[in-house]
Each structure stands twice: as C-alpha cells, then as structure tokens.
Design goal:
heterodimer, A: ABC transporter involved in vitamin B12 uptake, BtuC, three-stranded antiparallel beta sheet, B: ABC transporter involved in vitamin B12 uptake, BtuC, Arc Repressor Mutant, subunit A, 2 domains
Chain lengths: 373, 386
Amino acid sequence: MSITDYFTLLWHDYTLRTITMGTAVLGAICGMLGSFAVLRKQSLLGDAISHAALPGIAIAFLITGAKDTHILMLGALVAGLIGTFWIRGITSKTHLKSDTALGLILSLFFGFGMLLLTYIQKQPNANQAGLDKYLFGQAATLVESDVFLMIGVTGVCLVILLLFWKEFKIMLFDMDYTKTLGFNVRFIDTLITFFIVLAIVLGLQTVGVVLMSAMLLAPAAAARQWTNSLGVMVIVAAIIGALAGVFGTAISASQDNLSTGPVIVLVAAVFVLFSFIFSPGRGILFREIRFRKNRNDLQLKKTLQFMFGIAKTHENISHPHAIRILNNFHGFSKSSLQKMEEKNWIQLKRNEWSLTKEGYEEAKNLYNQQSNE
Amino acid sequence: MSSAQLEIQLIASVVAIACAIPGVFLVLRKMALISDAISHSILPGIVIGFFITQDLNSPLLILLAALTGVITVIMVEMIQKTGLVKEDTAIGLVFPTLFSIGVILIAKNANDVHLDVDAVLLGELAFAPFDRVLISGMDMGPKSLWVMGSILLISTTLLILFFKELKVSTFDVGLSSALGFSPMVLHYGLMSVSSVTIVGAFDAVGAILVVALMIAPAATAYLLTTNLKKMIVLSIFFGVFSAVSGYWLANILDASISGSMTTMLGIIFLVVYLFAPKKGLLSVLYRQKQQRTEVSLITFLLHLNNHSEKRERHINHLQEHINWQKVRSKSVVDLALKNNMVTITDDIVSLTKKGKDFTGLALEYILTNRDDKIEHIKEDFFLFRG
C-alpha cells in the first residue's frame, strides 16, 4: 500500500480511520501538555512516569482479572501519580538530585512491574495474553471508545488550560512571584502535573512505555524554536504532534512490519531536526548566517578604523593613500574594500583609497561608541 | 542448590558489582539519566553488531554497541551546546529516536534476525547458564559470566588506577583541571566504561533494569554516607544483596529474575529512604519539626524581650499577637517553661535570667549571622529539648 492509497483508504476504512484519529489526538494532547513539561524542565518526567505506570497496569489486572483498557489505564494513572509524587518527595526531602530520583523511580517501578507481569504470565488465566503490548504500544489495538476517551480528555484538558491559563503561565516563568501574588501554587502545580501524567497514560497503549517520552517532548521542543509566546507554542506543538501522529500512522500503514510507535517518534524527530536547523529566530542555519554577517561587518569596521587612524593625521581627510600601506593590516581584501566603497565609506581610485566624509564620520562615531562602553 | 542456580546468582552478583561502580560516579555527577539514555540507545548498535557477528556475546558487538552509547552522550552534548533546548530535553529527544531506529531495524529484518526487542529490553538471566564457553571441548562456564567478569575486571582496574582523579573531578571540576587532570578525558572515560557495562549487562538483566542496578545501589548508599569509598563499598553490597535475594524471590514467585532483583533494590531503597539515620525521610521530617519549634521558641522569647508592659506579656495576648494556633503556642510555652526560660505568674509571662541570656545570644546571632554563636547556644540551651 502506498501513502496515497492510505489517504484514499482513510475515508472508507474504519480501523485505519480510528487509528489515525487516535494517534492524531494523542499527538495533539501530548504536544499541548508537553510544552509545559519542557518549559518546567520536567522533560524526562514523561520517561519516568511512563515506566512507572507499568506496575499500576499489572496490579489493576491482578485485582480485576479483566483486561478492560480503561481500568488498566486507571491503574497506570494511579501508579504514575504515586511515582510523580515520590520523585518530588525524594528531591525535596533528601539531597538526592532530580536526575537520580527520576532514574530511581523509573527503573524500580518498571522492575517491579516486570516482576508482576511475569508473575501474571505464569497464572492460569487465559485473559492475561497481550498485557505486554503496553511495553511497546500497539496503535492497531485502538478502538473507537479509546479515541472518544482521548478526545474527551483533550476537551477537559483544553477547558482547564483556558480556565487556568494565567496561573499556569505565571507559574511557568516565576514560581516565587506566583506565591507572593497569593495563588495556591501547590494546587496549580498538582493540576498541571496531573494532566501531564494523564496524557502519558493515554499514550501508553499507542506508543508504549519507552517511546512515550519522545511523544511528549518532541512536538514541544520543535514548537519552542518557532516562537517565544507560550500560547503560540502550545498551539504549534499540538499541531506538530497531530501531524507526527498522522504521518507516522500513514508511513507505518504503508509498509509491512513497521510498528506505529517508533515511526511516529521518528517523524516527530524529523520535525525537531527541521526546526532546530531552519527556524528563523533560533535555528542553527540562520544563526550561522547572522554570525557570519556580523563577523564580516566587524571586519569592515576594523578596516575602516585603521584607515581612520591614517586619515586623521592629514588635514584633508579625503587625501588619497596607496592601498599598499594597508598591507601591515591584514584584515582587508579586494572585495572587502569594494564593499566599503558600496557603503560609500571610501573611494577607490586605481591603487589608492581615500576616506569619504561619511566614512570619516562613521569611523569617528564607532570610536566614540567603543570608548563610551 | 544446583550448579545452574549457583551460576545464575554468580552472574547476577558480578553484573550488580560491575554496574554499581560506574553508577556511584554517575549519581554523584548528576548524570544518572545518561545511563537510562545509553541503555536505550545502544539498541541500534546491538542490532547492527548482531547483523555483523550473529552472536550476542561477541566482543565486537559489545564494542559496537558501546560506541553507540558514547555517540549518544556526544549527541546529547551537541544538542545541548546549541542552546536550543535544555539538557534533559536533549536526552529525552536523542534516546527514543535511536531506540526507534533500532526497533525498526529489527522489525524490517525480523525474518533473518533471531533477536527481538523484548530480549534486549528485558533480558533473561535464567537462560544465561545455557550459553557456555567451550575451549577445545572443555566446559569453561557460562559465556556471560566471562563477558561480565572481564568488564568488571577492567572497570575495577580503571577505578583503582584513576580513583584520585575521578574523585577530584567529580567533586571539583575546576580544581581537577587546575591540577592537570583533564575533566574531558575522565568524563568520556566514565561514559565509555558505563556504556560497555550497560551493553555487557543488557543480555543478562535487560536494558531498563541495568539502569536500576546502576542508580539504585548508589542512591541508597548516598543516603547513608558521604564518604566516597564507603559509598562504593555500600553500593556493591546492596547490589550483591539484591542480586542474591532477588534470585530467591524470583524462585518463590516463579517470575522474572531481573524484575525481582529490581524489586529487592526498590525495597532496600524504600527502607533506607524512610529510616536512614541522618538523611532518611523520617529523620528529615523530625528535624524540620524540631527546627520549626526552635524558631517558634526564639520568636516567642524575642517578643517577651521586646515588651516590658504587662498587657503585651499576658498569655492570651501572646496567642493573638504572634498569631499562633492554640496548640502550637501551648507547646512553645511549655518548652520554654521546661527549660526555665520563662516564669508565669498570674498569666503574665516573664523572662528568667537564663531566658534573657539566651535571648541576648540569639539576637546577636541573628544580627551577626555567625555560626559559632549558634553552636554555643545549642549546647547550652537545646540539650533538654523534648
């Protein structure tokens, strides 16, 4: 199946439509909430929580004995929240740093989850098969009710975001100020963390434990490069997330043997790479161009400064001098002199240059500015 | 105990020790999550290595995969250097991407590769004794024991040789470069050792549990001591203890060995986290409560010191003036009474001589903010704190 086939099939095929909708909505909500995670420097929380959710899934299964997705998700949510608050407890009450706390919770919870999963697998319960799909995620298992749940959560999350927009924003950028203004910081903090954990848990079924962190981070990291406004960033991140979901599903559906999760992550990574390089404000490419331009500018000004030093000893500033005498100053070339002539700083006549009035003024001011600083 | 059981425990212990040593330095250098990143991103390295060697325990594969680990570190640092995103975001971007590439490589070649993602991610210790080294027909023991044993030997040798350098560069980068130990070389050295260890261990315990074996013993030990040597010894002890006890737990539950090793590590960490003598949660909470009471006491005494008029010193007035709840003000007054710092006559609180001296000292401390003052006060007045 080629990619064009996929897009025509999308309108007829129920499964394909459900999966595409699911990954798109998931990408959008992850992008939205991921923006907050990235800006709060909690990027790796997603990684830790998605791993920490595993024992929750296993315990929920052990208690109910049924493989109802929503109950398992509830278990994952509870385990994820316990993990989050334990991480916070470790960093605030002991001298262990946040990276250690994250790594600890991630690996210990996951290991415990593995213990439970292998334990469950040995149980005589035919229902247990397929619990390990949460490890890597299987977008193919998405059904319509899952998608509705995702859309519902996204809706609630949007409402909460709009309601508490001001609070979230101020807390992102200045926690102490928020406190002094009298906002209940703990409540706002818990609220946003809760939604981040919720988004992670929603994504587990689709992209799995390992790749969830990228799902949360990549759209936000890409969106960050295009704007300095939180509102725009959240929207752009949601769009990038949704696009990554759709394209990832399309590519994986059009090839054999490609699971959806990794492809979505790779598509998102391409978005990030593109943004890193080509974003006009912060991108590497434009920064390099600006850097070069500034360096050339500086070079020209240095040459001008040197010429100024020679010219000011003469009564007539526009007295022509031989280009030769610039030789012990190495920062000039034929083209740079021509550029200076274009800027009307100097006049070139065969082997001689002379400073113009403008060039003289420019050099003088340059000198003043420098000495003022 | 059969010889296979003994061998599994031996392998688990060797893996635990080999992980604990670099783990201590990763935790101290605040790079614990690098181990997580490396453990995931070695996947494409392992896959490509496996295409070439067709043997999960071949040294070439280990080197190739370890190289991917070091490349991960370099990529994270490169992204971080652009200043476009923070370090943790850089880590979070690099390893899932590399991991995805690995997963796709496996999926696309599923038919001719006997390697699946579960095996890499989760590992299975129980099968380790079946893969044996045969030298001219002689059984020389399980292969993974040899692999991990040599990795452990190398990292122990490096640790002993460069202990001083590692110590200095971990705690004071500036000093270490001033002394002429390049922090860069040590950094990449540590990264390479961690990378090789993770690759060697993934086969036995899986990529994620390697992270547990690296971080958890070191973090647990860090809660108990601030001495580097003791910390290394303690983490090795915790690692080996969890390896052996984890094996038996798995035996009882008939579950994954690596999972139960991690669970044991988790239990040990939880116990230490709660009950560690100085840095455990309970002692921290107790200390914070004590400090709160101390601060209240000082506030209370200073208030008394400031007011000579009777109205201000009436016990009911104190409650509303300092704005404490009833319980708290009662406990503070009781404490002050017990220490003979105040006397109460007709509901009027007044400072005793001892209370005045103490308040004077406390005031001086607040004004000068010099620690020697408070040390003296602690000895004198806070001895019978109840």
